UniProtKB/TrEMBL annotation:
This is Oligosaccharide repeat unit polymerase. Keywords: Membrane, Transmembrane, Transmembrane helix. The chain crosses the membrane at residues 12-33, 45-65, 86-109, 129-151, 158-175, 181-196, 216-234, 271-290, 302-324, 344-365, 377-396, 402-421. It comes from Malaciobacter mytili LMG 24559.
Amino acid sequence: MRLKFLIVFPNNFYFITNILIISWSSFLLLFFFGPIQYPYSSEIFYLNLIFFIGFYFGYFFYSLLPKKIIVKNKNENNENSLIIKATLLFSLLYLILVIYDSLIAGNVLEYGITVAREMMYYEGRRGSVIGMLNILLGGMPIIGITILIVLKKEEIGNYFYLLLGSSILGIFSYFLSGGRNFFVISLFVLFFVYLLQNKNRQKTNLLKKIKTKYKILIAILILLSISYVLYLFIERAELRGITVYDTAMNLERDFGVKVTLSPFQNEFLSLIYYIFVMLVFYITHSLSLLSEYFYINYEQLLGGVNTFPLFTMFIDKIFETSFYQEAMNKLLLNGIYLSLLGRVYLDFSFFGVFMVSFFLGIILNYTLSRARYSDGILIKLVSATMCATILLMPMYNILAGTAISIILSIFIIYFTKVFFLRKNDVQR
């Protein structure tokens, strides 16, 4: 296969830059002009500067490498058929495991999602075999929706409605384990899949494939789910015997911030306002809380445990070690979001932030280039996942959970496909 020197600049560059501009401008707008006033350290800005230098250095480094011309895969139809069947099978298995773990073992219907979630962590079921399998298969519903976006209905064939049903149920089942982050992040990932498909000048036919009444039903379910995500702020406050107002005011005591009081006299509008305050804190607090580590000159590097905790949890489960818990005990506040850069900094210091940013720039440029010129289902999803990673980077490290779960599911589908393709070749 001959090589072609190709500088991938305009399309990828502006696409990625737009994501970063939207991400950081939205975040900083809420951080500086929102209803919460934060203390913060100037080192935070140096950390972000290092990220941008490393990221674009990696981006342009890949752009200057010689590229192979992408040749259309002659075996694509057979591969897609295997991907569809494997995704459907694993999606159904995931649904069965979630139903057992949440409805039967977790008693979600009896205790409610929030209480059941706390019990799951208390009982250690998240680290059980079924919990690990749920993590491995958690990305299957997202792969299913990606297939529906990328392929035409006739290419999916008789599996279309079964795949649609199992994928939608799978995505909404994230709530059964309290996974509101997983649900919201999956929406961002699928939005990028949609953009990449249109970017490839092959407009998705997904909306054309579904009848109007089902479109309306899906839209209603998404709106209800987003409403439920916001309602969780109320439910969690009620479980502690306090109001959302009390929760918002407690932020001042617990995190040293200043909360602007509601300008509304109406009780309902004030409730909405304080839910908004909690949402803003949820989105923006990572920048301020990371500053605490600079104030005390924190030097206990965690070696990747904080950035990629799922891998550490797998190792602890297999070898009966306790690396994850030991690392969490070294944090100032366990369970607090510190953004992607914050987690990388605590693991590898400033140099680690540069190197991770450098490789992230390479990976994103590579996957976007492949996604633009390829009809591949899996590469589009990998690229979309990386786009969601940098979009949500200021507030949350999706590599700590959702993104890794999606990528692990992609690996399972990929190796399943390779296994059966080789098996078919041997039989011939």
